[in-house]
Amino acid sequence: MPASNAPQQARPLRLRRYLARRPLLTIAVLCFSSVALSCLLFAIWHQWGDGQQLLLPPHLRNSVDPKSGARQPPLHFQNRESFERSLEQGLERIDLPSMAQRAARQILPSVVHIRLEDNHDGKPNASGTKPEGRGSGSGVVIKDDGTILSNFHVVAGAANAKLIISFADGSESEATVIQVMPDKDLAVLRPHKIPDDLQAATIVGSGNLLPGDQVVAVGFPFGIGPSVSAGVVSGLDREFRSPDGTRSLSGLIQFDAAANPGSSGGPLVNHRGEVVGIVTAILNPEKSRTFIGIGFATTMESAGAALGLPRF
Questions:
Q1: pTM for the model
Q2: DSSP, res 7
Q3: Which residue among the candidates 150, 153, 227, 256 is catalytic per the annotation?
Q4: In 75-171, where do the E strands start and end?
């Protein structure tokens, strides 16, 4: 057996010795093999992959068939009407979200429900009933640390009541009023604990707003919500005086998105879901506290300096 295997074992040894004496030949063989393999892989990529399309100039990539190489004719419309009709038919096949839906999806995680309760310990009364509510409103988280902006009149009775914040994920926390701006009807709240994934709203100035721009109001009207209503900016730099004469505000955004008692303190956002104002008041000459199409929001510029926000 050893004698018969000797010639077979000697062949690889002679080949290695032969290649060792000719290093240039060895390098040439390796280079040729690498080039041949690369050409084979390129041919496969070009024929069955995306090679034909990617090797074309950028302005031709979408107009040439990657398989046949034939140039596809461009879309042609006889006139503007045929173009608009084709575009409308194409859009009908796509279920695009509305402006209000996109804006609401952006802001809803930052909107909170604020309520005041008489019972400070949060336990049922002697009769077994839950603490009686003294009022409710809305607010919006403006910083990652949980800082909430709302209306002063929403939390005006917090000194003699328990302030409860309900977050978008359903969790609740007591809160403390840390700053008030009665002349602008604004208040800043700090919850005692916040959810781990709390999302702060994006705040922008109202300088780019124009009458007719679409806006969305989000809040808890009559404690129902979060409720979303859409409308437009009706006017800018408006003034509002409450029927009892206790409040007088200026520099307001007038809007026609539905707002009712409980909506106060909620955000007014633009089409991108960015907060441009805080819903503050509604006007009703009948003094019935129901919405007739005229709402007012305090601009974020009014709160910016007091909250340490950057200039808009």
A1: 0.67
A2: H
A3: 153
A4: 111-117, 133-141, 148-150, 162-166
